[in-house]
Amino acid sequence: MKTYTVAILGATGAVGQEMMKILAERDFPVKELHLLASARSAGKFLEWKGKAIEVEEACDEAFAGIDIVLGAAENDIAKKFAPAIVKAGAVFVDNSSAFRLEPDVPLIVPEVNPEDAKTHKGIISNPNCSTIIAVTAVNALNALSPIRSMVASTYQAVSGAGAGGPLELAQQVEALREGKPAEAKVFAYQIAYNLIPQIGGGQYEGYTSEEMKMQNEGRKIMHLPELRVNCTCVRVPVVRSHSISVTLRFEEPVSVEDARRVIAAAPGCRLVDDLDNKQYPMPLDTSDQDIVFVGRIRPDLTDDKGLTLWCCGDQVRKGAATNTVQIAELLLEK
Asked: What is the pLDDT of residue 131?
């Protein structure tokens, strides 16, 4: 098999570190791995597959000779270096939201729309973590009957806010145990023993930027331009793995039995749906792996053409790093 020179932009962050791990796990055909980060991280060494690799400063010249760049940096960094990446002849698979809604940039979940990757012009976007988990869970149902609308509530783990999220949760729990005040820095409010019903800034009619991603990105990924999504995003005191409650309305009725059948066979999904035996998706079971667990499938009691389900997935892996590497695998010459 052909091997590729790969760079990770933002290699020292949580998602960049996970990308390194997943490249090794999936035996991606790497000829050389370049780790790119800010000037303050340049010169450090990170271990990959038993050898130490020096972190290089991200600059336009760093992309010469690179085949694939995996983006694990913020929007401003992605926008800054995208022209140089494309000019160098590399393909930029970007985890930021910088290019997701650009009409000429494919937005890919490999289990849902892998064929869209063929249309890239040097940049491919990785969707939002909750969007990835939700569309992986429901896409097979769309084949039974087109989805008209979704009502979603996300229960998003603190690690979705970066490496500081779990640390702040642990510090707050310890402080409260000792009778001290819980200090909030990463989050606007105390997250220990609390829920915060805002992720992202205000964007449209009282909905946040995070909430609008489910509709805007879901339309593009599933090729449903008229899809309407009502989403509420909530930060919860869970370390890892996002959970999502979804109610779907279809053009035609879809039975619970058919829904269970197609989800059980859907790529990237695992059916965990036995209420009597207390079997359902939970964050603890879905952390540090790449499958989206789906369960609690039941009729929507407000609409004869509706179904409700519950899904969980690891937002650091399938919601970010793994999905990005899977997209890169679509680029490999077989």
From this structure: 98
Is the domain of 84 the same as that of 186? no
Burial of 197 (0-12, 13-18, 19+ CB in 10 A): exposed
Identity at 275, one-letter amino acid code: L
Domain match, 250 and 145 both: yes
Kindly report the pTM of this predicted structure.
0.96
Q: What is the pLDDT of residue 334?
A: 58
- How many domains does the structure of the chain reveal? 2
CB atoms within 10 A of CB 236: 18
Q: 172 is in which domain, residue-wise?
A: 131-315
Q: Could you tell me which residue, 203 or 116, shows the higher pLDDT?
A: 116
Asked if residue 188 and residue 284 are part of one domain, the reply reads yes
Are the C-beta atoms of residues 108 and 213 closer than 8 Å to each other? no
Residues 239 and 315: their CA atoms lie apart, in Å, by 11
CATH of the domain at 213: 3.30.360.10
Show which residues are catalytic. 129, 242
Average pLDDT along the chain: 97
Q: Tokens 């940049």 label which residue?
A: 123
Helix (H, G, I), strand (E, B) or coil at 296: strand
Q: Are 261 and 273 in contact (CB under 8 A)?
A: no
- The secondary structure of residue 107, as a DSSP letter, is B
Q: Does an H or E element contain 174, and which? A: helix 164-177
How many angstroms separate the Cα of 243 from the Cα of each of 15, 129, 237?
Answer: 19, 11, 12
> How many Cβ atoms sit within 10 Å of the Cβ of residue 5?
16
* Residue-wise pLDDT tens digits, 197-246: 999 999 899 999 999 999 999 999 999 999 999 999 999 999 999 999 99
158 and 96, same domain (yes or no): no
Shared-domain flag, residues 114 and 247 = no
Over residues 16-51, the pLDDT tens digits come to 999 999 999 999 999 999 999 999 999 999 999 999
Q: Would you state the structure tokens that stand for residue 183, as one six-digit string?
A: 């200090």
Q: Are residues 97 and 60 in the same domain?
A: yes
Q: Are residues 156 and 201 in the same domain?
A: yes
